[in-house]
Amino acid sequence: MFPRIRIVLIETSHPGNIGAAARAMKNMGLTALYLVNPLQFPHEKAVWRSASAVDVVENATVVATLDEALTDCQLIVGTSARDRRIPWPMLEPKSCGELAVAEHAQGHEVAIIFGREDRGLKNEELQRCHYHVNIPTGQAYSSLNLAMAVQVLSYEILQAKLAKDAAPQQSAPNAGVAGQDESWDMDFAQSQAVELMMEHLEQTLIEVDFHDPENPRQLMTRLRRMFNRIRMDKMEVNILRGFLTAVNRKGRN
């Protein structure tokens, strides 16, 4: 039902959690599971905990890095349970589901990232995301296990799809988020193109003595947040790369 929405689990330590997450996904119509450097996989516990979602486990894409898991993605959402020093655009679970479905309907590749069972996502992983999503809980006990978190967001994706199908004459929720809708003349840039642009930008800032990597003062984090918030299209990335190349050439001359 959602071939272009991938669930990405990073460095999962318990294989049973992979199976439980796969089961939660399949309950809600998701089947694209990506595993980044899992501690134990393949493993019989993953198959056993998956129940009738063995196909999701067996067809999981296993990669060594987050970069590989995000290949071709145009919308990236990271799960975060705590506030950060530099705030990031946030989504509630319901709006996360609506946005994922709207983007999927436009043919975009979507990734929702879940971190390690004991410590979640690292700052540099969260900085790869366009949005963060937090799942509200009761104050008495706020800890969700991995499969529970996958279940909640998968449920919201399915509910958004059912609501969209029930009211096809209405505009897709959040279809115009970040300034792009179905009438936009260019598609969103893919993750790897944005990463190459960010690397090019950082190197150029160093060359012109604007950025000191020994004393970064959150410069690249804030620039990354700005570009993620804008959600550049393919042409905009190409224009920026061309401008940076011209700056490099001028500096060398």
Protein described:
This protein has two domains: 5-166, 3-Layer(aba) Sandwich (Alpha/beta knot), CATH 3.40.1280; 185-252, Helicase, Ruva Protein, domain 3 (Orthogonal Bundle). Helix content is 45%, strand content 11%. It has helices at 15-27, 44-50, 54-58, 66-69, 93-105, 123-126, 146-166, 191-207, 219-230, 234-252, and strands at residues 5-10, 32-36, 61-63, 75-79, 90-91, 110-114, 131-133. It has a seven-stranded parallel β-sheet with strand order 3-2-1-6-4-7-5. Helix 1 (15-27) runs parallel beside helix 2 and helix 1 (15-27) packs parallel to helix 7 (146-166). It is globular and about 65 Å long. Mean pLDDT is 93; it is low at 172-179.
Helix and strand arrangement:
Blueprint: E1 5-10, H1 15-27, E2 32-36, H2 44-50, H3 54-58, E3 61-63, H4 66-69, E4 75-79, E5 90-91, H5 93-105, E6 110-114, H6 123-126, E7 131-133, H7 146-166, H8 191-207, H9 219-230, H10 234-252
Parallel strand pairs: 1-2, 1-6, 2-3, 4-6, 4-7, 5-7
Helix pairs in contact: 1-2, 1-7, 5-7, 8-10
Q: Class by helix and strand content?
A: alpha/beta
Number of strands: 7
Low-confidence stretches: 172-179
Kindly, what is the distance between the CA atoms of the first and last residues, rounded to a whole number of angstroms?
54 Å
Helical segment count? 10
Mean pLDDT: 93
Q: Judging by the overall fold, what is the CATH architecture of the largest domain? A: 3-Layer(aba) Sandwich
Helix content: 40-55%
| Computed CA radius of gyration, to the nearest angstrom | 19 Å
Biggest sheet details: 7 strands, parallel
Q: Proportion of β residues?
A: 5-15%
The H-and-E topology, N to C, reads as EHEHHEHEEHEHEHHHH
Shape: globular
Domains, number: 2
Tell me the name of the CATH class of the largest domain. Answer: Alpha Beta
